[in-house]
Here is the input.
Amino acid sequence: MRKYIIKRLLLSVPTLFLLSVIVFTLSKWMPGDPAERLTGAIETDYELPDEGPIAGQYDRTYRHLGLHLPLFYFSIQPTALDPKLREISDGSLRASLKSLMYLTGRAEGVMEYHRLTSSFIRDMQRLGDTACISGENLNRFERLYRSAHEIENLREMHRLLETSQEPDGCVSTDHRERLLSSIEDLIQVEKGSFWWWPKFYWHGTNNQYHRWISDVLRGNWGYSLRDGSPVGTRIYSALGYTLWLSLWSILLTFIPGIPLGLFLAVSEKKYLKNSLRTLVYGLYSTPLFWLATLLLIFFTSPDYGSWTHIFPSPAALMLQDSGTGGLWASIGYFALPVICLSLNGMAFIARQMEQSAVREKFKTYILMSKARGNTDFKTLWHHLFPNALFPMITLLGAVLPALISGSLVIEVIFNIPGMGRLMWDSIFGQDWNTVYAVLMLGGILTIAGQLLADLLYVKNDPRVHYD
Amino acid sequence: MIESFHRIRKKWPGLLNKKALSSVSPVLKWVLAIWIFTAIFADQIANDLPLSCTIDGQRYFPALEESWNKFSGGSSARLKYIPLMGKMESVVMPPVPYSPQSIDRKNAGYKSPFGEQNTASTKERHWLGTDALGRDVLSGLIHGSRLALVIGFLSVFIAAFLGIVLGAFAGYYGDRRLRMGAWSAVLLLFFFAIGLYATFLALDGGMAFSHLFLLFILLIAAMTGRSLWLKTRTDRSSGKKEKRGFYIPLDLMVLRAIEIFRSLPSLFILLALIAIMGPSGIVQISLILAFLMWPSFARYTRAEFLSLREREFVGAARLQRQSDLKIIFSEILPNARAPIVVLCAFGIGSAILAEATLSFLGLGLAVDQVSWGSMLNEARKHFSAWWLAVFPGLALFIVIFTMNTLGDFLERKHSGYGLSPRGI
Here is the structure.
């Protein structure tokens, strides 16, 4: 048994690794620029460590988030691309350099051109009026440099550089000659035919994924990109609401659901049974969010007469204090969500229980139990129930992740600041650190729930062995 | 024996034959029929373009034309006919003279179905009320039924296709039956790697997509060339098979994939995928839903194939030297279809529910697509407009309930399959 647990735990490691890679990859595909978001957020309450003389707030945020690092331990890129491209923080410049690399097929040439041009522009700007290029031309030159998606732009830049030379007394740098030749190089030398050849780069541990995962393993989930607060704190405060909601709804799901399912399976009261079954099947097919919307609009507003205004409007919950007494005080706000979740869950559980009980009902051990003179009650609860419990255990395994992830829809509708709501807000606020954390938590709990279910099988059925 | 196996094949118990269908409850059949009918003829039932009219003495059928244009992807008939509205004569309007997007300014601001409405005649009445902008709820319901139908069936079709193919191969071949020569394995891996790399390159902007097509042709040429070459070789060596190579653990691979999918928090993955893609079309949403649904199809198909492949009729087919593909798809699959059909029924219900949930949350489909879920979303903005919450939800409930009942019915007919839908 212990061997089996260890084996299962070891097997879950690759799954978790894969999950982390999937989550990481997903976040990199998302539209939006995290550095830009955080730059907006830090102005209020987030202090960035100073990392040397990098110009501009954006640059510093870019480096602070580690966006200049390679994504993974290794990368396979066409020869035409330079892996150092990522170190350029300016997004549009990066894009234009990349397309130039694809156009010319030469990574080093483009990087050289980039270095020379940027230092040339810097020098010329410093020189001001004494520079060998007029201010207007310089601006034009810079614009072309930032959006050089085509060879034509390079030609124009070359023309600008050549014509701008004014012989009397102006100051130039040696950059100019080198820059001219580098641009000529890019324009004239033909694109090699092996620019697409995949090249393997090994980046070592200094990459974004490694940084993130080692932080996570150390227990540091990072900082929220929305307001700079630690992700752990955010999750902790959301967890309270969700646990409170889930515990109640799970209790109210299983306690009436299991006896109801058994009743539907074994009862001989035809009319009661059939009407209850219709009710259960109907509830099972009711979309959770529809039920929630109906309850919300009929019972939390005075629009339909004062007697239907039983529960407080959910908007007020956000203002409540979430301290120790807060949860008890806010019980009115939780009543409707709990009713929704448990009605829906109860129907599901009752249906499952009925199906598995019906499958057991005609087996010989039930007949045997009755023949021995056992009461119906004893036959039901001592013989049928443990055997019909088998599919329930699988569901119990799914309860564990549900306990934490809660129900996103319910939390969104009733405005409960729990985990589902946190996930929702984070995905749309592009708060990747929080999304990573919640997703990883969900994955860990799903795996743990499946393991728990498998262990409970053994507990419930001595015939099951794992070796 | 061969004869008897033919008889088995001819007589396999009908699932959806006439006799089985006659025992389906008539209510169920009617609901399904009405749903499919409204979905197909939505443009003719609810539209602000007339069914038929004459312009300058010539007869036109704008509502029909609109359906045809949607189907063939041509320019909208709306643009063509709206400017001509004044010139139309002998107009025959559809039963519901509103399209889901048409804005009735006179009845804007949540008009109740029972309250007073500012309409010219009872023909133009909004029978199920209007929303904030004066859009007709009934028309939205009718057009939403089409969306639900398409998403439900399309996503289940894709998921079933993927799941059945993977599950069937995994179940039939197991871990120690599919043998591959070392060279073909290398060739396959090589082309797979190149294809993957080229796709990324194309997505990154470095390569035109037409090159991918070239690559594909190259792959096919290589495969055909290789098989031709192998054929001549085996012919020469009098049909003796090569014994080199190794087994492909297909079953293990598919099982691992299913397990990984099961341990993903599916709702969150769904949200993340939708957020990446932004507002998207029906096909993309169906693809995403199918992507999350295929593992259950694969699981049940595999389990069926595991037991069926040991049966006599498979052995008989092998004796006939039928090809593996033929055995899988025309011998075993028809006998394994019971759990698949049941899963399809449940799957359609849960796919519709998933799409409605997404639309309700304001995600997924682009704004101009009317879905029952997005109509329910409107209800949250204005609590006193109960008709916005009740009717679309009722439609959703009826469709899902029907599909679940159908699933239950099919399952009872072939009892023994402990199937239950896995909600998303």
